[in-house]
Amino acid sequence: DWLAGLVDLIDDLLSDIWVLLHNSAGKTVLLMKEVCDDGG
To answer: What is the reported pLDDT for 4?
Structure first.
C-alpha cells in the first residue's frame, strides 16, 4: 500500500524536522547565554 508508505515517510520527515528544530533552538539559547555571560 503506497499510501501507508507515504504516511510513514512524512511521519519520519516530521520527526527529523522536529529534532532539528529542537537542536537549533537549544544551540541558540546556549549561544545567547554565553553572550550574556560575556557581558553582552
So the answer is: 95
